[in-house]
Amino acid sequence: MNRRKFLKKGGMVLSGTVCADGLLLLTSCNPSETTKENRLSRHKWGMVIDLNKCKPECTACMEACRQENNVAFHGDKRWDIHWIRKVGIQERHSENAGEKMIPMLCNHCENPPCAQVCPVQATYKRDDGIVIVDHHRCIGCRYCMIACPYNARFFNYKDDPDWPNKSYPKRSHGVAESCHFCAHLLDQGKRPACVDTCEKIGVKAIYFGDLKDPNSEVSQLIADTPLKRIRADLGTEPKVYYKGL
Amino acid sequence: MEVQFAKIEGKSGPFYLATGLLAGLGLAGVYATYLMHEHGIYLSGMTNRVPWGLQIAMAIFYIGLSAGSLVVSGLYGIFGKAEYKPFARIAAYLAMLFLIAGLLSILTDQGRIDRVFVEPFTHFNASSMFSINPSLYSGHIMICVIYLWALFKEKGKLTKIASLTVCLWAIGTHTGTGAIFAFVPRELYNSPLLPPSFVAAALSSGAALMILVIVTLFRATRRKIDDDLIIWMGRRLLAVFLLCALYVMLIENVHRVYLMASREAGLFFLFGGFHSVLFWGGLIFFGSIVPALLLFIKRTGTSIPWIVFASGLVVFGVLCERFLIVVPGLIHPPDLFPGMEITRSVIEEGIVQYSISFLELLQALGVFGIIGFAFLVGLRVFPLAPKEARAEL
After folding, report:
1. Percent of chain A, pLDDT > 70?
2. ipTM (interface pTM)
3. Calpha distance B219→B216 (Å, rounded)
4. How far apart are CA A121 and CA A133, in angstroms?
5. Shortest CA distance to B279 belongs to which of B318, B309, B243?
6. Is there a contact between B110 and A15 if contact means CB atoms under 8 Å apart?
7. Strand A84-91 relative to strand A100-105: parallel, antiparallel, unpaired?
8. Core-most of A62, B63, B104, B376, by most CB within 10 Å?
9. Which chain B residues are closer than 8 Å to A86 by Cβ?
10. What is the mean pLDDT of residues B318-341?
C-alpha cells in the first residue's frame, strides 16, 4: 500500500470512528432518567442502621452478604471485596473518645457519582433507586471506584475459587462491583441477606424498606428519629441512614 | 526556498538495533498485558484503594506530549513561520503517535479489554469524561491525519485550516483529560485549575520533547540545522510554557493549603511521603527551576547541548507531574467522617501505599516500544524529515 492509499484509508477509518462517536453523543440518553411508571418505580428502597443496637464485634451481616452474593475473599486487604464492612471510628484528638463500629455499604445515592462517570452505563440506578452494576457490560476501567466518595466500590482483581451460593452468579476478574441491596432477592419479594441475618440473630439493627411508603418502618424512623447520612454534604443524597452516628 | 523532505535511509546498524530493541519492548509489553488479563490485574501494583497507577499516568503523559508537538507544527501552519516548516511534518506525525500511545495505555489498563471495542459505542454515556475523552482523542488523531496529508500534498489553505483546527481541538482534548480527574469528588483531584494546569504542562512537555527529537534526529542523520531555530524554541517557546505551567501549579497548591477544608490534603500532597520528593525534587527543582534557569541564562540558553539538557529535564518533570496528578489523590483517603478518625477496618482505610509492579512497568515500556518503533519505521517509509533546516529561507 502506498502512502496515498494508506492516508486515504486511515482517514476514512478514523472519520467513521469519530462520526459514530459524535452520533452516539447526540443520541445518547440515560436510561436511569426514565419517568415511566413500572414495577420498580413504585418503590424507593432505603436502609436505616441503628448503631446503638449494632454489636461492635458482630460480623454476621458481612458473612451473610459474602455467602449470598459470592463476594470474593483472598485474605489480602488490598484485593479483598466487602460489599458491607465494619469501620471503627472515634473522635479525632480526643483521649477519652469511645470507638463506634459503623457498618458501611454502598449508599445507593440518589445522585450516584459512580453511575455519572461510568463510560458504558454498566453502573446505573434502577427505577427503585438501587445502584447496580451490569457485570456483562463493565469494561473494568475503575473510574467508578475513583468517583465513589465512600470507598464502597470494589474491583475483582483476581478470581476466587469459592462459590458458596450456586443459585447466584460469580463475577470474573476484571469487573467492578458493590452492594446492590440483594436486588435478586428483592425481585423475589425477599429482603437483603444482611437485614434478614441481623434479625435472625436477634439484633435487628438494620431496617430496610420502601421510602415511598410513608407507613414503612424506614419511613417512620426517618420521620420520627434524628438520623444521619455519611457525607450528605456532598450532594449525593445517600439512602442509607444511621441512628446514633 | 522550497524545503526538501526525504525519507531516512534506515539501513545502518544503529537503526536496526534501535527498531529491534523497541519492537522487543513492544512484544514484552504485549506479553505483560496478556499475563495480567489471563490471571487478573492484581499483578499490577494496583489495589482497591489505588485503582489507577502507572498506565493512567503514562496515558495522560503521552496525551500531553501531543499538544506541544502540534504547537511546534502550528508555528508554520497557523502563524506562517516558514522557517519552522521543516519540522511541521515530523511534529504532526509525533502528535498522532502520542495520542495513539495514550489510547494504548488506557486500553491495556482495562479489566475487560475484550469489551472495550463494543460497549463504549453501544452504551455511550455523555455524562462521563471517560466517554467524552476517547471521542476527543480519536477525533484528534483523525484531524492529525488530515493535517499530515495537507502537509505532504503542500496544500497551503488546507494546511492552515487543519493546523488551526488541530490546535483548537488539542485545547479541548487536554482540558478534557484534566477534567477526568478534576470532575470527581476527591480532595486532591477536584480542582477547576487542573484542566488549565494540564494544558500548560502539556505544552511545555511537548515543546521540550520536540526539541529533543529534532536535535537527535538531525544529529543522527547528519542533516544541517540552524542553531537559531532551536534557541528560539527553547528560549521563547519552552521557557514561556514552563513559566505558565509553574504559575498555575503554584496557585493550585496555595489555594489547597489556604482553605481549611482542603489544607490537610494539600499538606499531605506537599510533604506527605515519597510523592512529595517527586514534587519538590522531580517537578519543581529538576523539572522546572533548573531548566528555566538554563534557558534564561544567556550562555546556557544559547548553547544547543544545554537546551537539549533543559528539555530533557522538562520532560522528566512533567512525567513526575503526571504521576502526581494520578497517585497521591488515591493514596490519600476520602474524608468519610469529618472530625473523626478511623481506628480499624477490614479494608485499607487511611493513607495507603502504592508501588509499581514489574509487569506494570513492562506494560508501560511496551507502549513506548510500539510508538518508538512506529516512529522509526515512519521516518523510513514517509518523507517526514527535512534535508536541512535553516533560520532564513
Report:
1. 85
2. 0.91
3. 5
4. 9
5. B318
6. no
7. antiparallel
8. B63
9. 345-346
10. 93
Each domain of chain B, given as residue ranges in start order, spans: 5-335+345-389
Which DSSP helix (H) or strand (E) runs through B388? strand B388-389
Which pTM was predicted? 0.89
Question: B147 to chain A, minimum CA–CA distance in Å?
Answer: 10
What the block records as the C-alpha cell of B200 is 500548560
Contacts of B56 in chain A (CB under 8 A): none
A1 touches B at CB < 8 Å? no
CA B122 to chain centre: 29
Q: Which three cell numbers stand for residue A93?
A: 484528638
Interface residue A73 vs chain B (CB under 8 A):
no
Higher pLDDT, B134 or B112: B112
> Cell 496525551 sits at which residue?
B63
Rg (CA), chain B: 21
Q: What is the largest CA-CA distance in chain B?
A: 73
A141 touching B (Cβ < 8 Å) = yes
**How close A2 gets to chain B, by Cα (Å)?**
9
- Are B379 and B220 spatial neighbours (Cβ–Cβ below 8 Å)? no
**CB-CB under 8 Å, B111 with A85:** no
Q: What's the pLDDT at A1?
A: 53
Degrees, nearest 5: CA angle A75-A76-A81: 85
CB B25 within 8 A of CB B18: no
Q: Does domain B5-335+345-389 have CATH number 1.20.1630.10?
A: yes
pLDDT in tens, B169-207: 888 899 999 999 999 988 899 899 999 999 999 999 989
Q: Closest to A24 (Cβ–Cβ): which among B121, B334, B344?
A: B121
Which domains are present in chain A?
41-90+99-243 (3.30.70.20)
Q: Who contacts B320 (Cβ-Cβ below 8 Å, separation ≥6)?
A: B278, B279, B282, B283, B287
The 3-class secondary structure across B285-338, one letter per residue, is HHHHHHHHHHHHCHHHHCCHHHHHHHHHHHHHHHHHHHHHHHCHHHHCCCCCCC
Which pLDDT does position A29 carry in this prediction?
Answer: 44
Contact state of A151 with B116 under an 8 Å Cβ cutoff: no
Q: B52 and A146: CB-CB below 8 Å?
A: yes
Residues of B in contact with A87 (CB under 8 A): 336, 342, 344-345, 349
Interface check A5 vs B, CB under 8 A: no
Mean pLDDT across B16-24: 96
Q: Are A123 and A132 in contact (CB under 8 A)?
A: yes
Give the Cα separation of B264 and B261 in Å (integer).
8
The grid coordinates of residue B61 equal 503523559
Band the pLDDT of B104: cuts 50, 70, 90. Answer: very high
Assess A190–B contact: CB distance below 8 Å, yes or no. Answer: no
Query: Three-class SS of residue B169?
Result: helix
pLDDT grade for B87, boundaries at 50, 70 and 90: confident
Each residue of B227-264: pLDDT tens digit? 999 999 999 889 999 999 999 999 999 999 999 989 99
